[in-house]
Amino acid sequence: MVIELILMATKSNKAIKISQKHLLGIQDLSITDVNFILSEAKQFINLNRSKNKKLDTLRGKTQINLFFEPSTRTQSSFELAGKRLGADVMSMNIVNSAIKKGETLIDTAMTLNAMHPDLIVIRHQDSGACNLLSQKVNCTVINAGDGRREHPTQALLDALTIIEKKGKIQGLKIAICGDILHSRVARSNIYLLTMLGADVNIVAPTNLMPKDLEKFGINKFSDMKKGLYDCDIVMMLRLQNERMNSSFLASNREYYEYYGLTPDKLDIAKDDALIMHPGPMNRGIEIDTNLADDINKSVIQEQVELGVAVRMACLKIFCN
Amino acid sequence: MVIELILMATKSNKAIKISQKHLLGIQDLSITDVNFILSEAKQFINLNRSKNKKLDTLRGKTQINLFFEPSTRTQSSFELAGKRLGADVMSMNIVNSAIKKGETLIDTAMTLNAMHPDLIVIRHQDSGACNLLSQKVNCTVINAGDGRREHPTQALLDALTIIEKKGKIQGLKIAICGDILHSRVARSNIYLLTMLGADVNIVAPTNLMPKDLEKFGINKFSDMKKGLYDCDIVMMLRLQNERMNSSFLASNREYYEYYGLTPDKLDIAKDDALIMHPGPMNRGIEIDTNLADDINKSVIQEQVELGVAVRMACLKIFCN
Amino acid sequence: MVIELILMATKSNKAIKISQKHLLGIQDLSITDVNFILSEAKQFINLNRSKNKKLDTLRGKTQINLFFEPSTRTQSSFELAGKRLGADVMSMNIVNSAIKKGETLIDTAMTLNAMHPDLIVIRHQDSGACNLLSQKVNCTVINAGDGRREHPTQALLDALTIIEKKGKIQGLKIAICGDILHSRVARSNIYLLTMLGADVNIVAPTNLMPKDLEKFGINKFSDMKKGLYDCDIVMMLRLQNERMNSSFLASNREYYEYYGLTPDKLDIAKDDALIMHPGPMNRGIEIDTNLADDINKSVIQEQVELGVAVRMACLKIFCN
Questions:
Q1: B304 Cβ partners below 8 Å, 6+ apart?
Q2: How far apart are CA A232 and CA A216, in angstroms?
């Protein structure tokens, strides 16, 4: 059904509009929205693989990347996506330097808003920062990760990667493993994958397992060997050292022993199971380094590749 | 008269040329120069509000933003201004990172100059750094703030904002309040607003009041309630904590009591008085937070908005 | 012979191709490659001096500048080179900020590679980092300096500067002076200048003199007055304080006394000898400040200027 919807969307893009002004989270999107975004993104995959990667779609538009947390891949992905669509892109890292003078998020946002951007892509350490921002500005806000809440473009690129590799999401058994509690990637993926009909297993130590996700019909496991049984997709999460109280875990070694993806644990999943990771990876902590690089099993590079395509689709669709 | 000059300028832009190669300070500009810049800027206001914000005016030109002090709004404003005019813009933050190897301002400038930029936009903590730079390079130098000396584009955008809101500057009573001593914004505004015929009041604690501004025909006040009497414009300054010796002030609370803009103090100004601030604001120190956000009185967002237009005008006019 | 080759190359650029996919070091290049690059670079010198410095040669291409060491001039030079050729340029400084999360060089490179750049320009503190990178990515890798190993575009711009000023390199006597041991600039220049037929003198304190360069037919000197005798070119190196164990040198003052370029030492070279320095300079340590600025003797600014042209040539030729 998903594929049919995507085909429909591809045939009649002009008739479809997105239901939201901003992209703040997967929870705000309808299945039609999602399929519209994914079908647009598919068209950008080939562009990004071609010799000439430049369009004029967003020429004359201004995109501001406003990053309050450091990021290599997400910020780069959005920057390249905007530039390839012809937008004027300005990237601002407010991790150490700015806001030194004590300005608030809202004052910063209002200031940038007055410069008439068309798009603000924001990453912020506080859950809901992007929602607050979206109420204050005139332009489109794209959430590039806010606290523990949502990271919608990550989930969309994960979905696109699965569809490209498996042909569908509906009916697949997908395990999401690791530090679920602190993970916006996990949250956005749970919302999106269950919406698209996947059977989602959550695998985490009990103290890294959130208590608020029951209503999404997911299955919870604290034993990875049980959680990976018969899975089509094993999605590992980054161990968020910087966001975690040291008392959560005994040691990296113990974490690897029980929750790191190793060949013997992967054997429990289906023979053709694929490995995913949003990056950056802690090799030897949440994932065996050889598995991470196994091009027959790992689609981690494809995730990054399709990430640019998904972000191009989001910038194009939400900008108006 | 100002408006007439602006209208004249609008009608015959091609005949007018700027008298200076560089934009180092308001004090170097003639009233004709100022009106030429403001009339050009007016044309960019609508461009910035439109869907397509891109011109080819500076295509093929190279603009380097060379910032030795951190800045969110001024640097962003210049970056967007240059990009919207089609220039290749390169922004360099030399606050912490560069000059680590011990290179001097002049060596940095000479190096960049050899790369044939057409414009260098510089902010530096030393008064006169931009003048020194302008003697060493072949390209146009735009001062984006140097020490306590001048911040000419800030004054120009303030003037444009007043003209847009009040229709004129001539004859208006304008109070500039706060840390005048350390403020390049105050200096550039005093030069420009008196040139354009305003009646300027300076309000500051005696130890933050400079001694060298008498010749500009300004009125000095240490009592804010006297200084704001009958004013059309109340321009608040940022309390420059980082530039101020701690001995200047007893406490932020006391400063707010005597020199913070509060509703009761604003009542002393005209009923339709407008509030301005160059940002970033210290809410609750130099300005009441509700007043800052009062869209009927505060034109702080308009200042930022028109700032991009003014900088586009300056980049276009001074680049040759 | 060199000039003839260059003329030949200029006449028939289309027939010539570079022998390498990547630009990792001078040692990988043939003399035909070098002359091809230099002849292309000559064509960009005038472009950079003209009013319109923009081409569409690399429109639709993505260039990523990946700098693991701080750099003002090299990074700026590559950024402007790419932008003037119409590429989408993304600059990433991974000095302090990124890789904070512990990602490896290879993971960073693989991630960026998945975004389909056409060119990665890399500077890294480890010798051979760019070679490692080039084995992992699909796109062209340009070495912007790796550890003590090579800095090929610096040597190419130095060669172009000498050819522009002296008409040739063959037969010239060229002294390279200073901290040879830690200098990638020295290594790349030794490879290139000897390849192009220069007679190269190396001048360094014995503990800063490498032991592995005999096979290139260079002459070694620990006495600067002997090493500069009859030279056409005196190329000074930056004293790499940050890379040097403090035990190498007694003091800056003593270094200047014995190895700093001063008027009396320069007198030993030919009357029309030219001074070069890759920058940034330590004035008063490795070079007398007045000599550095003497426009009749110093071609330091020309080096920077031609650096942009050389990098444009390299980006154009190696991108495919």
A1: A111, A114, A115, B73, B77, B279
A2: 19
> Residue B89's beta-bridge partner residues?
B63
Closest partner CB to A97 (pick from B70, B73, B84): B70
DSSP 8-state assignment for residue B197:
T
User: ipTM of the predicted structure?
Assistant: 0.91
Residue B19 in tokens: 């008298």
Distant-in-sequence, close-in-space partners of B36: CB < 8 Å, separation ≥ 6: B9, B13, B16, B18, B317
Residues in chain C with CB shorter than 8 Å from the CB of B107 are 279-281, 283
Interface check for B305 against chain A (CB to CB < 8 A): the answer is yes
Dihedral in degrees, nearest 10, Cα atoms A200, A183, C91, B59:
70
Assign A98 a pLDDT band (cuts: 50, 70, 90). very low
Report the phi/psi class of residue B279: left, alpha or beta, with left for phi > 0 and alpha for psi in -120 to 50. Answer: left
Please choose, from the candidates C283, C214, C210, C297, the residue with its C-alpha nearest in 3D space to the C-alpha of residue C248.
C210
Look at residue C95 and give its three-state secondary structure: coil
pTM for the structure as a whole? 0.93
Confirm if A293 and A20 have CB atoms less than 8 A apart: no
In order, the DSSP letters of A67-106 are: ESS--SHHHHHHHHHHHHTT-EEEEEETTTTTTTT---HH
Is the per-residue pLDDT at C252 higher than 90?
Answer: no
Most A-contacting residue of B72, B123, B239, B286 (CB-CB within 10 A), to test interface: B72
In DSSP terms, C236 is beta-bridged to C177
- Phi and psi for C65 in degrees, rounded to 5? -95, 115
Q: Which of residues 95-114 of C touch A (CB under 8 A)?
A: 96-104, 107-108, 110-114
Q: What is the DSSP letter of C188?
A: H
3-state secondary structure of C196: coil
Model confidence at C8: pLDDT above 50: no
Spatial distance between the Cα atoms of C197 and C172, rounded to a whole number of angstroms = 8
The residue type of C167 is G
- The answer on pLDDT for B97 being more than 50 is no
Contact C114 A70 (CB under 8 A): no
What is the residue-wise DSSP string for A175-191? EEES--TT-HHHHHHHH
Which DSSP string corresponds to B95-124?
TTTTTTT---HHHHHHHHHHT--SEEEEEE
How far is it, in rounded angstroms, from Cα C111 to Cα C56? 27
- In this structure, are residues C53 and C84 in contact, taking their beta carbons and an 8 Å threshold? yes
Judged on CB neighbours under 10 Å (0-12, 13-18, 19+), B271 is exposed
**Planar angle of CA B219, B221, B226, nearest 5 degrees:** 105
CB-neighbour burial class of residue C252 (10 A; exposed 0-12, middle 13-18, buried 19+): middle
| C231 φ/ψ angles, rounded to the nearest 5 degrees | -80, 145
Interval A153-164 mean pLDDT: 98
CA distance C157 to C313: 11
Q: Is there a contact between A111 and B54 if contact means CB atoms under 8 Å apart?
A: no
A136 CA: distance to closest CA in chain B (Å): 12
Rounded Cα gap, residues A204 and A221, in angstroms: 7
Nearest to A300 by CA among C128, C114, C261: C114
Q: Please confirm whether the linkage preceding A278 is cis (ω < 30° from 0).
A: no
Interchain contact B59–A (C-beta under 8 A): no
Q: Does C47 touch chain B (CB under 8 A)?
A: no
C12: its two tokens: 């028939």
- Residue (of A79, B93, A96) closest to C75 by Cα position: B93
For residue C62, what are the β-bridge partners? C88
Does residue A310 contact residue A318 with C-beta atoms inside 8 Å?
no
